[in-house]
């Protein structure tokens, strides 16, 4: 364990996993803890949050599980109140909650479109609203939002609502960074590219003839020749949350194996 986040208090919204293996949020919660942070692992599924917290505590590190619904302001406030009551402050706000909704404007219902925005972008608004007063009081804090390469590029899937929402997360991050820079608060986002997490096997594999075809095609599309892992995203988050990034704010960082640099698929 290193000490880049020693004595920091972090809340990871979306710290669970949608299946076996490592989601971005689960890996990030553990990575924060390994760097010395106390991590509140918040997720809609308490069992999933508990699994992450138990992995952390199993390594002799500090993590607790808590249930949260990021579409419910009172639920988010309860998580923040727990952090303040038990630890006195919040140093890191990490937003990892997201949902992929298939379809273009013709196929999408209005309810599904609104729900996608409410979860993907509304969660950033509500968590920031709850945490910012505490960061403002201490004139310190780091916010990391997980966006997607889909926020700036077409990724090959018909996900109109997802593209829209993640583009909004990018600019919401910039807005937070600019408004609160003078208060000692930094805000950055990470745009994962093609990452091999449990989510893709649940929400994306249906676009392919087989799981093997999906994996092979996604690997082919990355210039480095393979998908990233959840820990690639987590390592970027640790850097952005740490004092090593103290002069970095308003950045939308691709973690994508070079995919965002190429205009040619698979190059």
From TrEMBL:
The keyword NAD applies. Pfam families: adh_short_C2. CDD domains: SDR_c. Signal peptide: none annotated. It comes from the Bacteria. Keywords: NAD, Oxidoreductase. InterPro entries: NAD(P)-bd_dom_sf (IPR036291), SDR_DHRS6-like (IPR051122), SDR_fam (IPR002347). Belongs to the short-chain dehydrogenases/reductases (SDR) family. This is NAD(P)-dependent dehydrogenase (Short-subunit alcohol dehydrogenase family). It comes from Phyllobacterium ifriqiyense. The lineage of its organism: Bacteria, Pseudomonadati, Pseudomonadota, Alphaproteobacteria, Hyphomicrobiales.
